[in-house]
Specification:
Helix content: 40-55%
Structural class: alpha/beta
Strand content: 15-25%
Number of strands: 13
Shape: elongated
Number of helices: 17
Order of helices and strands: EHEHEHEEHEEHEHHEHHHHHHHEHEHEHE
Length: 493
């Protein structure tokens, strides 16, 4: 231990947040200042791996204090102060961190300026959890920068110093600890009381981070984090304010109004002005770019119209030429031959009744029949339609097993992996026993689809089929019907 430098105690209050605690302790171990002791106050939380925490702290000594039943942040802070052996005391909640120069910067300021309390600037940052077990962090954005000169009047209206920004002489905290009746804003209450007797020296240098996390892991946006914090602190803000409102003088109001409210109002107005100018500039730029694109498209369309006009003129020359008139019979003959080949192929692939029915349909829709039908009464036209369009046979009602008919549930699939699992689960969850589930994947391009489908391949009611190429939903459904064996068919997208 370096005898020339005083011991600094860092009090870490924690409860049921071991993964955050490890990050906080790593930031203590990274400090350039020595000697340090870390006092961990476990406020009725889960058991902690003490040996692992010692390894994280390396040469920083550990003083571990466990409170069996949760007593709150203020009580945990007072327990830490009571157990601290350092000449200086700092605080670090388990979800915040210190930069490596934090303690050295503040201890040097206290010694140089001869003050009992010094504080640095702190950057508050929005984070959210990530990873399959929600153990990793992703930074969303910076929030407020706490970089304000000491003003005891302003402190009566607003806590502008995060607790991890401060370093105290031990005798200061021995005289005045936290109010254990306050579960929230206990640090603000302490600072107001101390500001009546001490000057806080400000070091305008960012040496710590105040981290803001979502309360509910299903909502991880910055707006939600800010709303959660507002709801938590608003009630106890009023309690602390009412506790100290008798201290407020007209001078305090004037200082707070002129040095905080007015500048903040002007700052917000300037921000809005800059935002409007930025939006106007952006709109003008977008407008110029869109006009340039439209002009370019007009030029392309003009060139294309000129090409089309030229081709129309060339086509008109061809159609009025002698060679085109001379070859007209040959073109008509080729058209007739192609039609005859098409009719022969259709006749070979279908039975005679289908061929005859198709011929009647074509005749009914031909100009020849249509021309004469307009002279017939409506009842006669209906008779002609029935004659030409009848299928020639009546389809009898299928015989279905009344007791337990087998049902084939057809699910055509193409991508949409995010919905597929719940879709199949809803089919499998059916309590009807005589059910088969036909799933046909129409060559999905999303690799997650096949992985999901393969999980259900062992289910006795599920039949999986995979198309080699994409054929569309209609043909996919038709192929599924062919594979089905049920007396009743149902579809589920």
């Amino acid at each position: 231990m370096d005898e020339k430098k005083p011991l600094v105690s860092i009090i870490v209050r924690t409860k049921d947040r071991p993964k955050e605690l490890r990050r906080a302790l790593k930031s203590i171990a990274s400090q350039t200042y020595r000697p340090i002791e870390s006092i961990i106050v476990n406020d009725g939380g889960c058991s902690l791996p003490i040996e692992e925490l010692k390894d994280i702290l390396c040469d920083v000594s550990l003083n571990y204090v466990r409170i069996e039943k949760n007593r709150g942040r203020a009580a945990a802070g007072n327990v830490g102060i009571k157990n601290a052996e350092g000449q200086y005391i700092g605080f670090l909640d388990d979800d915040d961190i210190l930069y490596s120069n934090h303690i050295e910067t503040l201890q040097a300021a206290c010694a140089r300026e001869g003050v009992c309390i010094a504080y640095s600037s702190v950057q508050s940052v929005y984070y959210r959890w990530t990873g399959h077990d929600q153990t990793d962090l992703i930074k969303l954005n910076n929030s407020q920068l706490y970089d304000y000169e000491f003003n005891p009047s302003r402190l009566l209206f607003e806590n502008y110093m995060p607790l991890n920004a401060l370093l105290f002489s031990k005798n200061v905290l021995s005289e005045s600890g936290f109010d254990e009746n306050l579960p929230i804003n206990e640090d603000w209450d302490l600072l107001i009381r101390l500001s009546r007797h001490y000057h806080f020296f400000h070091v305008s240098q960012i040496t710590a981070e105040y981290r803001l996390f979502p309360k509910d892991e299903t909502r991880q946006d910055m707006a939600q984090i800010a709303e959660d914090r507002k709801n938590i602190h608003s009630k106890w803000f009023m309690v602390v304010f009412d506790k100290h409102k008798s201290l407020i003088t007209g001078k305090d109001w004037q200082i707070f109004y002129s040095e905080y409210l007015i500048p903040k109002h002007e700052e917000e107005l300037q921000f809005l002005r800059n935002l409007i100018i930025s939006e106007q500039t952006s709109h003008k730029r977008d407008s110029r770019e869109k006009n340039a694109v439209l002009q370019q498209r007009d030029e392309v369309l003009a060139r294309q119209s000129a090409v089309i006009q030229q081709r129309d003129e060339e086509l008109g020359i061809i159609l009025t030429s002698k060679s085109w008139k001379i070859t007209y019979p040959l073109r008509q003959l080729a058209r007739v031959l192609r039609y005859i080949v098409k009719v022969i192929n259709y006749s070979v692939r279908n039975n005679p009744s289908t061929v005859l029915q198709r011929a009647f349909i074509e005749l009914y829709h031909s100009p020849l029949v249509g021309y004469w039908l307009r002279y017939l009464p409506a009842s006669w036209k209906q008779g002609v339609k029935s004659l030409f369009l009848t299928r020639g046979k009546t389809i009898s009602s299928p015989q279905i097993n009344v007791n337990n008919p087998k049902v084939s549930l057809i699910i055509p699939v193409f991508n949409h992996a995010e919905y597929l699992d719940k879709c199949i689960q809803s089919a499998i969850a059916q309590d009807y026993q005589e059910l088969e589930i036909i799933i046909v994947d129409d060559a999905s391009t999303d690799p997650n689809v096949k992985a999901i489908l393969n999980r259900y391949g062992s289910d006795r009611r599920v039949k999986l089929y995979f198309n080699d190429k994409n054929i569309g939903i209609s043909e996919t459904q038709n192929s599924a019907v062919i594979h089905s064996t049920g007396e009743i068919i149902a579809f589920l997208d």
